[in-house]
Structure formats: C-alpha cells, structure tokens
Amino acid sequence: MYAAYYKLKEMPFQLTPDSHFFYDSYEHKRAFAHLTYGLAQEEGFVVITGEIGAGKTMLVERLWSQLDTKHYRAVRVLTTQVSGDDLLQLVADGFGLRSERADKANLLRALERLFREVQAAGQRCLLVVDEVQNLPIVALEELRMLSNLSIRGKAPFQCLLLGQPQFRRILADAALEQLQQRVLASYHLGPLTGEETRDYIRHRLITAGWNADPAFEEPAFAAIHQHSSGIPRKINTLCSRVLLAGFLEEAHRITEGMVVNVANELVQDLTAGQPSMRSTAPATNGLAQGLEERLGAIERSVARHDRALKLTLEITARLIEGQQ
C-alpha cells in the first residue's frame, strides 16, 4: 500500500532478514570481522550475541550470501530446549543424514563418516546454531565433543553460535570451561547510534527505490532512535507503521509528531488488555474502583476497535480508488 503510494520498488522495512538490505554499521562491521576471522581459523567456535532484533540473523544472511559453497557445506539449526541427543539428531538431519532415529553412538559414527567424506571432497562443515541460549549445558558439551574430531590433523567441523546476551553468562559456567577454551572469536552486537539510525533508515529506503518522498525531518530521526533504542528490528517496525500513517494521511513529510503518535499507538497495542497497575484502593471503595477500572478497560477496547475499523475502511477505500 504505502510502497506504491511513495513509488518504492519494494517494502523497505520488512522484518524478515534480507542481506540485500544489510547496513554496515560500526557494530555490524566489527561483528562481521570477528565472524570472518573466526572462520578463517578453520576450527573451534565463533560466538555472536546481541539483544533481540539487534541484527544477528542479518549477519548470518550476509555470511550466507558470501560463503563459498565450493569450500563449505553449511547448515543452520534453530534450537529450543532440546537434549544433547536431540541436538545431535538435528545436526545429523541438517547435514542430510536422514536415517531412522539412531542412538548416540550411531549418530556420532554417521557424523564422523560425513566429515571424512566432506573433507575428502575439499570442503568443510559449518554449523550455525541460532538461539543458542536455549540449549542446556549437556547439549553444548555435545557440540564441544564434535569439535574434538580431527581428520588428518585438521578439524573438519566448525560452529557459529548466535544467542541473546544471557548466553554469555551460560558460557561462563565452570562446567563449560573446555568449550570456553575453543572459542576463537566472540563479539556482542550493540545498538545503533542516533546518527547510524538515521543512516540505516536512509539506506533501507534508498535500497527500496526511495526518491526523497516522503521526506524525513531531522527531529523525526531522533524520535525514531529514542523510541527504538537503536535496535534494527524495532526501527523497522516503527518506520513501517510511520509510513503507513503517512500514506493514510497523504503526507509527504514525516515529522517528529507523527513518529511519537505512532510509537505511542504501538505501545498501546502491546499493552492492551494488561491489568491496571494502579494501587489498590481501601476496601470501602473497592466496588467503585472495580467499576471504574472495568469502564476504563471497555473504553480502551472500544477505542482500539474504532482505530482498527477506521484503518480498515481507509485502506479499503485506497484500494478501490487504485482500481478505478
């Protein structure tokens, strides 16, 4: 909708990671340098952590787009709370060993055979484990044991671990000392600065075919940074809603006020239905307070539905106008 209105070739702020939109900020540049340095060592582990939405997956997408498939056989595993044996099964499945569920000994033998075949073909196995903070220590130890394999004096297997900040506390556990010693490169991905937030927004818009319509006022960039804390995914969510609001209002200039209004709406949407945080009134006023809170909840609910209905009607009207 707003992409067509502003004559954009594609949606500039989609949430799905796409290396086409990669922005080489100071933090992402350093994180990628640590990643490529670690891979160049051809052994051990590389650890990248960051807040939710900081761009860890985007880094991997960029790596995937540049990875020499003639040299690597790469697999990505998205983890949840799985046991060590289940993780080995996921790794085996990822590398194409789709046999019936085997016991641990057979899985390890099958993986070792695979590593030998891959190495004989002049390749190396790369495993990317996402959301690694969800893995128990026993599962992390299984990964460490896999890294112990050596064929003709070389490690045929290397692992990239991506996780949220709490993984650093997990990794510091004394039970994982041997894994710690095998980490060759590690980096924590921080948020964008205010200036980088502005450049990031411009970069994504230009990549999508932006021709300065809509124009962004400088205070609008500052407001976006403030309300997103410089986290790329939050920036994308906020900017997408701001452009939608601009489309509905037929605006060709994005102001600070528009950003603040949309940011407040997003907060209201996320907190809708949550219990009131007001202090408890005396027992004698309990009934009155309960009725007041209930009335407030009803009013907020009606307001949300009114906004949703208005938005739906306006979008429908735009689509009908476009077809005529």
Shape: elongated
User: What name is given to the CATH topology of the largest domain?
Assistant: Rossmann fold
Tally of helical runs: 13
Mean pLDDT: 84
CATH class of the largest domain: Alpha Beta
Largest sheet: 5 strands, parallel
Q: What radius of gyration results from the CA coordinates? A: 25 Å
Can you count the beta strands?
7
Helix content class: 40-55%
CATH-scheme architecture of the largest domain: 3-Layer(aba) Sandwich
The secondary-structure element order is HHEHEHHEHEHHEHEHHEHH
Strand residue content:
5-15%
Q: Provide the number of structural domains.
A: 2
Low-confidence stretches: 276-288
The main sheet orders its strands as 2-3-4-1-5
Distance between the termini: 15 Å
Quick summary of this structure?
This protein has 324 residues and is α/β, with parallel strands linked by helices. The protein has helices at residues 2-5, 26-40, 56-66, 84-94, 104-120, 137-146, 166-171, 177-180, 194-207, 218-228, 232-248, 256-271, 286-323, and strands at 45-50, 72-78, 124-130, 157-163, 183-189, 215-216, 253-254.
Written description of the protein model:
The chain has about 325 residues and is an alpha/beta fold. The protein has two domains: about 1-15 and about 195-324, no CATH class; about 25-190, Rossmann fold (3-Layer(aba) Sandwich). It is built from 13 helices and seven strands. A five-stranded parallel β-sheet has the order 2-3-4-1-5, with helices on both faces. The radius of gyration is 25 Å and the shape is elongated. The two termini are about 15 Å apart. Residues about 275-290 have low confidence and may be disordered.
